[in-house]
């Protein structure tokens, strides 16, 4: 199992990651299925049809419900959700940020209050690795704290130092778990996460420290949490050169199509974001000529597909007018078709990016794509 850097154009990377669950061609967009399902009634058969390479699920949410031990008893996450391609599980670390009112952080780990029934949950590096091992995902993310981008420098420095200590514990525990006889995926990979808010010097120092641990991949976390796009791009400019070029680089939770194009240009090759499914459920659909809101009255008599020439299940069979009617009538099919279209749009854009890198014309492609979409 290895990452192969096939080609570069500037800092943009065209790569390939071999995993126990198949090959991932990069740059790649991972389709977010928080609780082992894409919101919007999207099945794993749908995911295959819309060119999904990697599905992403959430460690914390699956631990709370149905329970990672139940998933393990049922053969692991791949078998549970009938998906034979790669799965990445995040570590639960983002919930340290998103459930700020329901958690307490200390050196051992974090105590949460369940968002479902309020019961206390403790999760530290070892617990996160154990849960992800029970799920049997292809790639496990290290347990980290995602500090707020507006936190004080001293807080962020202390948080990053603790995240390094947690990462060392994650690596040790994953090595132990992968050697157990009853482990579901003895080839589970571990990605570390770079943090540091919008302080470039803290991020660079952190990148150097985690690179020494020689992990399977490296993520940049703690962006798209309140800072401007310009600040995000600046941090990527500063920190990505300090992450190993011969390993996957993953920008967590980002973003819009333009964000992705800009980040690919800066050397990122793994992405995930809830935008395509969340926007789709609200009738907002992506096209090569910008985003459409299908609730708008002007689509009432529009018999064209969402996008001419698109081969997604929605565009092949239905009109804007019909999908608008479904959305207005609160029929689930309307949401489902919009989500399928958006995920297909993202997955197709990543295919185009890979083709452009293969042909050595990514800069032209990026310029034209951004110009059309805006």
UniProtKB/TrEMBL annotation:
Region of interest (RNA binding), residue spans: 253-259
Enzyme Commission number: 2.4.2.29
One Pfam family of this chain: TGT
GO BP terms, alphabetized: tRNA queuosine(34) biosynthetic process
Cellular component GO terms held in the UniProt record: cytosol
Keyword set, alphabetical order: Glycosyltransferase, Metal-binding, Queuosine biosynthesis, Transferase, tRNA processing, Zinc
SUPFAM superfamilies in the cross-refs: tRNA-guanine transglycosylase
Reaction equation(s) it catalyzes: 7-aminomethyl-7-carbaguanine + guanosine(34) in tRNA = 7-aminomethyl-7-carbaguanosine(34) in tRNA + guanine
Pathway note: tRNA modification; tRNA-queuosine biosynthesis
Molecular function terms from GO: metal ion binding; tRNA-guanosine(34) queuine transglycosylase activity
Residues annotated to bind substrate: 90-94, 144, 195, 222
Binding site for Zn(2+): 310, 312, 315, 341
Domain called tRNA-guanine(15) transglycosylase-like: residue spans: 11-373
Catalytic residues, chain numbering: 90 (proton acceptor), 272 (nucleophile)
Cofactor binding summary note: Binds 1 zinc ion per subunit.
Needed cofactors: Zn(2+)
Domain of life per record: Bacteria
Quaternary state and interactors: Homodimer. Within each dimer, one monomer is responsible for RNA recognition and catalysis, while the other monomer binds to the replacement base PreQ1.
Task performed by this protein: Catalyzes the base-exchange of a guanine (G) residue with the queuine precursor 7-aminomethyl-7-deazaguanine (PreQ1) at position 34 (anticodon wobble position) in tRNAs with GU(N) anticodons (tRNA-Asp, -Asn, -His and -Tyr). Catalysis occurs through a double-displacement mechanism. The nucleophile active site attacks the C1' of nucleotide 34 to detach the guanine base from the RNA, forming a covalent enzyme-RNA intermediate. The proton acceptor active site deprotonates the incoming PreQ1, allowing a nucleophilic attack on the C1' of the ribose to form the product.
NCBIfam families: Q_tRNA_tgt, tgt_general
Family: Belongs to the queuine tRNA-ribosyltransferase family.
Protein name: Queuine tRNA-ribosyltransferase
Organism: Mediterraneibacter butyricigenes
């Amino acid at each position: 199992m290895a990452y192969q850097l096939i080609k570069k154009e500037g800092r943009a990377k065209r790569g390939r990651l071999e995993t126990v669950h198949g090959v991932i061609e990069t740059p790649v967009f991972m389709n977010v299925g928080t609780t082992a399902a894409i919101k919007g009634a999207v099945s794993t058969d749908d995911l295959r049809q819309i060119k999904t390479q990697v599905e992403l699920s959430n460690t914390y949410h699956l631990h709370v419900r149905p329970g990672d031990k139940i998933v393990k008893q049922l053969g692991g996450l791949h078998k549970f959700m009938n998906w034979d391609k790669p799965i990445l599980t995040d570590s639960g670390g983002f919930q340290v940020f998103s459930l700020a009112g329901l958690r307490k952080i200390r050196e051992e780990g974090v105590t949460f209050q369940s968002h479902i029934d309020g019961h206390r949950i403790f999760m530290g590096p070892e617990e996160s690795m154990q849960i992800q091992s029970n799920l049997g995902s292809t790639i496990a993310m290290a347990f980290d704290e995602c500090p707020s981008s507006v936190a004080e420098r001293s807080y962020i420095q202390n948080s990053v130092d603790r995240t390094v200590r947690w990462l060392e514990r994650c690596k040790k525990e994953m090595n132990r778990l992968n050697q157990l006889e009853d482990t579901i995926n003895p080839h589970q990979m571990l990605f570390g996460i770079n943090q540091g808010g919008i302080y470039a010097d803290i991020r660079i120092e952190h990148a150097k420290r985690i690179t020494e641990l020689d992990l399977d991949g490296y993520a940049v976390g703690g962006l798209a949490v309140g800072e401007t796009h310009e600040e995000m791009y600046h941090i990527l400019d500063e920190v990505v050169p300090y992450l190993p070029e011969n390993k996957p680089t993953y920008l967590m939770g980002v973003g819009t199509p333009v964000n992705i194009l800009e980040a690919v240009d800066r050397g990122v090759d793994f992405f995930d974001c809830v935008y395509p499914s969340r926007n789709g459920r609200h009738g907002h659909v992506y096209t090569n000529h910008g985003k459409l809101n299908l609730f708008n009255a002007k689509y009432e008599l529009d018999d064209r597909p969402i996008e001419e020439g698109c081969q997604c299940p929605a565009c092949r069979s239905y009109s804007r007018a019909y999908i608008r009617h479904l959305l207005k009538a609160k029929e689930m099919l309307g949401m489902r078709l919009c989500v399928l279209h958006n995920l297909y749009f993202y997955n197709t854009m990543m295919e185009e990016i890979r083709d452009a890198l293969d042909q050595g014309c990514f800069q032209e492609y990026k310029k034209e794509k951004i110009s059309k979409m805006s």
